[in-house]
Amino acid sequence: MPKLFIFAVGGTGARVLRSLTMLLASGVRIPNCDQVVPVLIDPDTQNGDVTRTVALLKRYARIHEALYSDGQKEKEGFFSQPMNTLAHLNTGGSEELRDSFVYDFGGISQPFRDYLKYNDLSVESQGLVDLLFTQDSLAANLDVGFRGSPNVGSVVLNAVVQSKEMRYLAQSLQDGDRAFFISSIFGGTGAAGFPLLVKNLRDGNSQLAHPEVRRRMKAGALVMLPYFKLQEPSVDEKAAGQDFIDSNTFITKTKTALSYYADNLQGLESMYYLGDQPGQPLANHPGRPSSATRRTYWSCWAPWRCRTSWKCQTTSSTPASRSTTSLA
Fold first, then answer.
1. Closest by alpha carbon to 133, among 123, 144, 125?
2. Which pLDDT tens digit goes with each residue over 231-249?
């Protein structure tokens, strides 16, 4: 039973996954794939885009179960594509997972400084931390995500690698399974989480189960380039110390990420880049429910663009093909 694991990282990943769910509800099937297993990864559990997507995934799963609970393998029809959480996979392991489409970060709610246990570090280590991170980054509360700071995200998201969710996923892998990653590369969560997930899923020296299956597994990715901009905070808001994200840095962050990927990112058979010219600036909300971004054309079109990577069939290994598309 080939499975497709979709890692939707950050708010952008959630938006694309939401559009994919709507396509599947309309009767679209992923060829040669018996089960879709979405995994949403975002420490900002109150992110408006994430909560909307989770609600939609739960509704889809309930409707699919109601329509096809007799076990018939329908080839076409509304809601015919099976979709389940990681917890529904029978791995034979002893670890139990929370039945959720969202990776459990364990309720991270402290500032990044406390997460690093900064006050317990030696003077030399504190000096290194001060060199690598700004005081604003150290003071930022992690329950709203990484606010466009991939250097912060890469530290926190390292915990995902040896989590029980990843061990559970690796234990369930079989030949023919595939993985697909969706994220932006100009923010914090996606830019940090995407390369870490790819690297560690492929790493044959990690403690995860089935290293040979992980090495042979086909994988692809959709990487979102900047597609929106945010309003500049007023002078009064800046003076009040209000949190905001500087969208003027998006292009610089994108160039840095692309440069890193060119030299260090391996293990993908297909990789798609998708971007758009920003329209009117959106309200500047770093996290929580108000962070939802309005739906745009690309979020509906992106799943169609990547369907060729979602065919769950075993093929010969080839270097990653890369496709760049602008909707401008």
1. 125
2. 887 777 666 666 677 778 8
